[in-house]
Amino acid sequence: MLTIFVASIWMLSYYTSRMLREDMNVLLGEQQHSTVSMLAAEANHELSERIKWLESVARNITPTMLDNPPALQEFLKQRLILSKLFNGGCIIYSADGTAIADSMPAAGRLGINYMDIDTIAAALKAGKSNMGKPVMGKKLGAPVFGMTVPIRDTQGKVVGAFAGVTNLGLPNFLDNIQQGGHGKTGGFLLVAPQSRLIITATDKKRIMEALPAPGISSTIDSRVQGGEDTQVFVDQFGVEMISSVKTIPLAGWYVEAILPTSEAFAPIYAMQQRMLIATVFLTLLAGGLTWWILRREFLPMLDTVNALSRLSESSQPPQPLPIIRQDEIGDLIGEFNRLVGTLAQREEALRDSEDTFRKLFEASSDAILLLDGNATFVKCNQRALDMLKISREKLLALTLDRVSPEFQPCGRPSSEYAPEMIASAYSKGVAQFDWTCVASDGSEVIVEVYLTPIVTRGETLLYATWRDITNRKLAELELKEHRQHLEELTTVRWIS
């Protein structure tokens, strides 16, 4: 019962720890997902506003202005709001992708063809407003990404492009994600899944970091493919993280919140440590108290066992055992004492019976012997020894037929006749016959034998009584001789 109780404590401790960790995982996941959803919504709003500003400005650029770069330069200079929205400047491109106006002329981007940039090519060729993937700026030498909208003439034909550039190396509108800490060691990531790049992160060293190649992390692969969930996984640095993801619809990017499980579940680990200490304490307390209680309860029984052990090693008759407390153990000892009393009475009666039998056995005028199944003598009284004039040791080494090897009743050898009489005793329950025994001094004793099977201590023996009828047989023989002599005399007189 103590083992079951202690095992239950440990199982409860383990179950509570597991359930507490799972509940904390769900709670942290919900909090993380709520946070990244808010950040993703804010980022999507900021991107949407900047696209709208670019489209609004692009509608005011005419084909005539595209042919007059100084006028375009002045046009951009007058739009001060653009420098606040795009810290990397705004650029106007001709139809072939060459930069013809720049709000930051000192950047040295004028006259350079940017048709190889996907966002610019998409705006000029497909006429779509779009955002490009993060790249290293050709002139800025820093990670940048652009938003580009087409410039159309009055007929709707694309005649140029207008782009706003965000320099990720300088303070920008995404700093809410970069600077938003998550716990002590966690943070946020803004990821472009199309190019498997981290656009920005709380940890500046991870800006423009490439994600692991496909197939290395199933969690990252599922998120690159658009999955939004909360998972616990081991990142590429071997750190177990709890992470939540939310997609930014406009850009196709996603915001990810990461927090090491060592920090996330620190309260759980502390609780588990306290529960472990409490469980060990309860185990020791329960074990100690149970041992003390059991020892106190079973001490009378142990004393009883010791008393019985001493009694079994002594020759004294069993004595009643002391009853220390009148409880269940006391009742048990009381019943045992009553049993001892009953057994003592039976033993006394048995001793009386044995004494009576022993006296009758030894005082009998008949010889009494016990034989086993092989007709070997196993016990005898003194009368049998006196009758055969033999010692007890010698007699108990003989069989029934050996005490009369020369006797041939009914004209048959005693070696054959004795087994027949024994078999008759077993089958009929008793056998009676006369037997001539030869004593050790050679004298013959005629006995009347009664054989009766008895069972003692699980063994069947033959109980034999020998009554000396030698004098009777001799008297019968003498009477027979007198009768015969008388008959002869009578016959002689009659003839005379």
Structural commentary:
The structure is a single chain. The protein has 496 residues and is an alpha+beta fold. The protein has four domains: 137 residues, PAS domain (Beta-Lactamase, 2-Layer Sandwich); 109 residues, PAS domain (Beta-Lactamase), CATH 3.30.450; 81 residues, no CATH class; 115 residues, 2-Layer Sandwich (Beta-Lactamase). The protein is 48% helix and 21% strand. It has 14 helices and 16 strands. The strands form three sheets. Strands 1, 2, 3, 4, 5 and 6 form a six-stranded antiparallel beta sheet that branches. It has a five-stranded antiparallel beta sheet with strand order 8-7-11-10-9, sandwiched between helices. The chain has a five-stranded antiparallel beta sheet with strand order 13-12-16-15-14, with helices on both faces. It is rod-shaped. 24% of the residues are buried. About 1% of the residues have low confidence.
